[in-house]
Amino acid sequence: MINNKNILAIIPARGGSKGVPRKNIKDLNGKPLIAYTIEGAKKSKYIDKVIVSTEDEEIAGISKKYNLEVPFLRPKELAEDDTPGINPILHAVKWFHENKSDFEYVICLQCTSPFRKAEQIDDALENLINKDADSIVSVCESEVSPYWMKRIENGVMKDFAEGNPFYSRRQDIPEMYRLNGAIYIAKTEVLIKNKNWYTKNTLAYVMDKKSSIDIDDTIDFKFAEFLMREDNND
């Protein structure tokens, strides 16, 4: 709780995954991937309740081994490849409301960000509440600037962002940021109304490159394993 506001954190974890089969519970340096997010969320000093939303019995079982609540199994139709990411979050919020338990703020913590820290979750939450914004979403500095991106038409290379100035030196390019998928927080009433994390009053929470690693495929997995081994050797 922060400023007398109840906080619900939801860890969405479906069983299917195209890039890496069973990704959310795949072993990463001795622990299932989901464990890193569970442990980080439980270390938060503000979150009142942490749950996993899944349709998968095995994921539910592993989550419970890490002493995390799995109050329901979500419907299979909310765990398809084309299911919008916001839908399982809204489903969980509705489930708690129907069971007489409401929260002023809701957080989404995806399993694919194993380097995200509890301190970053709390810092983002503090920023959101202190500025009384609608929501806050984590970002990191973009590795590739859209000013240097190209598109191809009939084999001919053209600027992706036409009409923008040309920058020959990286240090002259304006700073750009991308979503990193690590932290999403919103006022619950705003999220229900807009069915989206983004409004005209959404803040950006800037995270460092390592904390922003998002595991999507096998290469990402191997890179995360390498970094964790390096950390253990320090």
List the helices and strands and how they pair.
Blueprint: E1 7-12, E2 27-28, E3 31-32, H1 33-42, E4 49-53, H2 57-65, H3 86-98, E5 105-108, H4 118-131, E6 135-141, E7 150-153, E8 156-159, E9 177-187, H5 188-194, E10 202-206, H6 218-233
Parallel strand pairs: 1-4, 1-5, 6-10
Antiparallel strand pairs: 2-3, 5-9, 6-9, 7-8
Q: How large is the count of helical segments?
A: 6
Query: Gap between N and C termini, in Å?
Result: 35 Å
Instruction: Indicate the low-confidence ranges by residue numbers.
Output: none
Q: What would you report as the Rg, rounded to the nearest angstrom?
A: 19 Å
User: Quick check: average pLDDT?
Assistant: 90
Reading the helices and strands in chain order gives EEEHEHHEHEEEEHEH
Give the second-level CATH assignment, the architecture. Alpha-Beta Complex
In total, the number of domains comes to 1
Strand order of the largest sheet: 4-1-5-9-6-10
What's the total count of β strands? 10
Portion in helices? 25-40%
User: CATH H-level name... which superfamily?
Assistant: Spore Coat Polysaccharide Biosynthesis Protein SpsA, Chain A
Report the sheet-strand fraction. Answer: 15-25%
* Main beta sheet: 6 strands, mixed
CATH topology: Spore Coat Polysaccharide Biosynthesis Protein SpsA, Chain A
CATH top level assignment: Alpha Beta
The structural class is alpha/beta
